[in-house]
Amino acid sequence: MLAILGILVGIIVLIGVLFMNLSPEFGGKPTEAQLAKYAKSANYKEGKFFNLGNVKTDMSAGDMAKAIGGMFKKIPNALPAKPLPVKPIDSSAIVNYKGETRFIWFGHSAFLLQMNGKNILLDPMFGDVPSPHPLLGTKRFSDGLPIAIEKLPKIDVVILSHDHYDHLDYGSIRKLKDKVGHFYTPLGVGNHLKKWGVTEDNITELDWWQEVTTQEFTFTSTPAQHFSGRGFSDRDKTLWSSWVIQAKGEKIFFSGDSGYGPHFKTIGEKFGGFDFAMIECGQYNELWSEIHMFPEQTAQVGLDINAKTIMPIHWGAFKLAQHSWVDPVERAVKKAKELNVSIITPQIGVPTVVPQNQPILNTWWQTANR
């Protein structure tokens, strides 16, 4: 019996090793020339990127054990009682839109932003499970998306915040790549795209505070407090970023993933405030507070960056932490009201114009959870 058990364990280990080395899900690796380029970054040392103030994101062995144990705890209301409602939109409604800046939320941190006559996708994770294999994660809360990738029209720009599976999805990129004009990523993330068939000419990697100006836009990579990696051996080998998008005097902030820190005030001071900000609010825990902020901090960031209106994101699609699926938005809304921060909470798939006046709060999740 021991011999048979040993053989089975060996087979499982072999399958795991082969999967890690052969599956395209894990992405690409940098060349020596790229490593030399990254070494010039102020945010890179000893072969890894790091956070401002050297904020550490590694958990102790004890905290890691607590985190793993928490995955097996039963959390009340951790998942919606039924699949979340999604407002469908067809390709023609996207193609024919020529109005004010608007967005369509796909859940979690994925957006279609229509701005200055262009289509911009933010962290387009359109897959069902945020993991390298469907058996390694929980399924999306909704049964579908507002529009299938195949039906999306031409996408002018894709912006990626970092390389974690809930933000950068192999299957989504493979389906999107031939209809995207250009990809903007933090340093190193472009190697995954190249591995998946995106041509190098269509990729621009940026360090924090670097920007690219086109005829219509300025895209700026700004700091975030997080980490990166898709496997066991590539921790912090690529950079993570928040982003600023500017066009015709309008400024939009996209937080990506980030713990709360002084970098938000710095960003707000540098850009003089924002018309609209998408700020993460979910997947938090005391054990990893350095890399994901709490919902109350989401509202505070709205003040720090001087945003006219904020939207809580990084919730409403996947279970990645030990809290109720509605806690993130409800806590963020409550704190925003206390701080007098203007906040909006549109339903997944509903085209939403960036508000110019006091927005109306849509508590759609309350009926969705019954």
TrEMBL record:
Q: Does the keyword Hydrolase feature in the UniProt annotation? A: yes
Q: Which residues form a coiled coil?
A: none
- Give one Pfam family, short name only: Lactamase_B_2
Signal peptide residue numbers? none
Show where the Metallo-beta-lactamase domain sits: 119-315
Q: Which GO terms describe its cellular component?
A: cytoplasm
Q: What keywords sit in the KW lines? A: Hydrolase
For whether the record's keyword set contains Glycosyltransferase, the answer is no
Q: What is this protein called?
A: MBL fold metallo-hydrolase
